[in-house]
Amino acid sequence: MAVRAGDGALYIAEKTGRVVALRGGKVDPAPVLDLSSKVSSGGERGLLGLAFSADGSFLYVNYTDSNGDTNVAEYAMSSNGLADPATARRVLFIRQPYPNHNGGNVVFGPDGYLYIGMGDGGSAGDPQGNGQSLGTLLGKMLRIEPRPTGGKPYGIPPDNPFVGRTGGIRPEIWAYGLRNPWRWSFDRETGDLWIGDVGQGAWEEIDFQPAGSKGGQNYGWNRLEGTHPYRASTPPPSAVPPIYEYSHAAGGCAVTGGYVYRGGQISGLAGAYLFTDYCGGALTALVQRGGRVVQQRVLGRGLPSIVSFGQDQDGELYLLSLQGPVYKLMP
User: Fold this and answer.
1) Fewer CB within a 10 Å sphere, N or C end of the chain?
2) Cβ of 276: how many Cβ atoms within 10 Å?
3) What distance in Å separates the CA atoms of residue 217 and residue 93, rounded to the nearest whole number?
4) Nearest to 216, CA basis, from 139, 162, 168, 165
5) Cis bond leading into 222, ω under 30°?
6) How many helices (H) and strands (E) does the chain have?
């Protein structure tokens, strides 16, 4: 889900390829964008993310094409509130070796740059070692300028942590060691970054990056699953541990990251980070101080098949189910 400047609609990405506008609980008759003929949507593939530029003039989408490869594309928004298909421009293309762990979230950060979360390329256990390799965009958080000058598809922010490095290191990389960052967000008040990273078979993790970070963090995958050794007896020397992890023994299987609540309708949740699990379904709130969790509370059993959260213009939160419904979190 995304919102657009000066517009009260909620924009929803459907896995099968459409972007629709939701106003007052009803879907507009015409889709904002229809990529159904371009998108492969089986399994973990599909239209996986969307974001608007700060002024609302451009829509960015992240989807897997008919070959299963990742495309980040830009569309200009027309005066009628729809994306203009004739303005389609590919910003970024990444080949996917396997059909799962595609990441897909795209978000403009407080610094105005576009952040793109990429999974490790799929299969199990990261067989290609993409999470720890700085020569690939897979298993990373990327940070780019999507509208550069000079005819290039995108630009590299000069303060990215690996700019100027040799040996094939990709300058687009902001952070690495991720398995499948499935929903992550910036705290709209502080600028802190929260990442829900899906685990392999035993542990789910939430990573925390405080505002003002210079990037370059290594979150450990595939040598670590959470704080636990996976493909190594010792962690990478630079590994940053998650701020929170939980075991599959409690019934979970895949974290769905959410947002820090900054709305006005539920005062008791102010400043708490909310997330859930695709299988377990419990809606959980965390409060951090100085990069450590100081409070945790399970808010309820939650809802089935929640695959994403959304945040509206007022900071109120929404939950999106793969079964179809969009829910609003209420007192």
Assistant:
1) C
2) 27
3) 23
4) 162
5) yes
6) 0, 25
Find the distance separating the first CA and the last CA of the chain, reported in whole Å: 21
Alpha carbons within 13 A on the beta-carbon side of 264: 2
Residue 303 CA to residue 281 CA, distance in Å, equals 6
Q: What are phi and psi of 248, to 5 degrees?
A: -65, -15
pLDDT tens-digit series, residues 102-136: 999 999 999 999 999 999 999 999 999 999 999 99
pLDDT, tens digit (0-9, with 9 covering 90-100), for 271-327: 999 999 999 789 999 999 999 999 999 998 788 999 999 999 999 999 999 999 999
How much is the pLDDT for 150?
87
Please enumerate in sequence order all residues whose Cβ is within 8 A of that of 169, keeping only pairs 6 or more positions apart, or say none.
Answer: 134, 135, 162
Distance CA 58, CA 51 (A): 9
- Domain 96-254 -> CATH class: mainly beta
Tokens read off for 273: 């980070």
Give dist(CA 21, CA 117) in Å, integer. Answer: 24
Question: Alpha carbon of 316 to those of 188, 267, 301: distances in Å?
Answer: 12, 11, 20
The arrangement of strands across the sheet holding 306-311 comes to 306-311, 317-321, 326-328
Helix (H) or strand (E) holding 73: strand 70-76
Judge if pTM exceeds 0.90. Answer: yes
Phi first, then psi: give them for residue 53, nearest 5 degrees: -60, 165
Torsion angle, alpha carbons of 183, 138, 193, 199, to 10: 60
What is the CB-side half-sphere exposure of residue 286 using CA atoms within 13 A? 24
State the DSSP string of 211-261: TT--S--B--TTTEETTEESS-SS--TTBPPPSEEEEGGGT--SEE---B-
